[in-house]
Design a protein that fits this description.
Length: 167
């Protein structure tokens, strides 16, 4: 049981780390000499433009930003609640609250990555003053980590739903 508990804790911490990296790091859309994320676009590692009010469809990018932040916060809250439930739950009870919060985190990261996937081309074409050098790019590792974090938080949420507190 102790090995299973250690695995679940490491899995959850890994999920949170993936969410932090995907949210903070500047590599959602990359190419030759540029990289972009949900916060800014950088050319040649020095000329960075923050995504702000002048950005066309700024509300779409704000939705991606907000749901990524919310998923990270929910993942951290789920971990804290898991630790509290670990010492407070009676033997045989399930970690349902932790599971619900972790699955909400999963839903938020899925929404963020889906919005970015569906709207990326439109966002780049409508904001040519920022993205004029970035049309020939590809999804970066932060974007991929967001989808991996989706899978990890989903699996973690299911593990908490199945897990019962044992001796």
């Amino acid at each position: 049981m102790l090995v299973l508990l250690a695995f679940i804790i490491i899995f959850h911490i890994t999920s949170a780390a993936l969410l932090f990296i995907a949210t903070i790091d500047n590599a959602w859309w990359v190419g030759e000499g540029f990289f972009a994320d949900v916060w800014k676009v950088c050319l040649n590692n020095s000329n960075c433009t923050e995504i702000g009010d002048s950005y066309s469809n700024y509300s779409t990018m704000q939705a991606v930003q907000a749901t990524m932040i919310l998923s990270t916060i929910l993942c951290c809250i789920a971990f804290l609640i898991f630790l509290l439930q670990l010492f407070r739950l009676k033997q045989g009870e399930r970690f349902v609250l932790t599971s619900i919060i972790q699955l909400l985190s999963c839903l938020c990261v899925m929404i963020a990555a889906s919005i970015y996937t569906a709207q990326r081309q439109e966002l780049h074409e409508e904001n040519m003053h920022i993205y004029f050098h970035t049309l020939e790019g590809r999804y970066g590792y932060s974007f991929i980590l967001a989808w991996v974090a989706f899978a990890f938080t989903f699996i973690s949420g299911l593990m908490y739903l199945i897990l019962r507190k044992r001796k």
